[in-house]
Amino acid sequence: MATTADIRNGLTIEFNGKPYQIVYFQHVKPGKGGAFVRTKMKSLENGRVIENTFNSGAKIDIIRIERRPYQYLYKDDMGYNFMHLETYEQVSLAEALIEGVEFLKEGQEVEIVFHAETETAMTCELPPFIVLEVTYTEPGLKGDTSTNALKPATIETGTSVMVPLFIEIGEKIKVDTRTKEYVERAR
Fold it and tell me: Which CATH class is domain 65-125?
């Protein structure tokens, strides 16, 4: 059994009988009264972020998790199918468990987080940055160089992303899967 002194970003704990991952924490020692730990926790079941305050020294239950490399294969009526890169074992996940599902393409490597004791998949994470090809965008006008002007572009997964005016059809761009924004042209 751990205490609030063990809290750190990325730690997975059991809170109200459900798994949560610590996104942010702050240890607060007010001038009067006892110290406490203010946290933001993300539910690994539905992705919602909640805030909670723990008294300093309170007991918490740490959940042991494992991150395993998988490759996306295809989508069918059962869900999204992935293959383990070392054992070739296949697993099917519901769309709700996949973060950034709109950027998922066949052959994409991902990390699936498993609960170590129950061997159940908790979440699927794409790499922070991926390279995708622009399949459609309006042509940029020559001389239209206003600062930070953006236009919509459809990428190969069918998702629309806002890109600078100089990006054209067929170019590869780097996209941040966490913020769902254009980062730069791919080299």
Answer: mainly beta
Give pLDDT tens digits for 5-25.
Answer: 889 988 999 999 888 989 999
47-71 pLDDT tens trace: 788 999 999 889 999 998 899 999 9
Question: Cβ distance 20 to 7 under 8 Å?
Answer: no
Domain 129-185 carries which CATH code?
A: 2.40.50.140
Q: Which fold has domain 2-62?
A: SH3 type barrels. (2.30.30)
Backbone angle region of 37, left / alpha / beta, with phi > 0 → left and psi within -120 to 50 → alpha:
beta
- Residue ranges of the chain assigned to CATH 2.30.30.30: 2-62
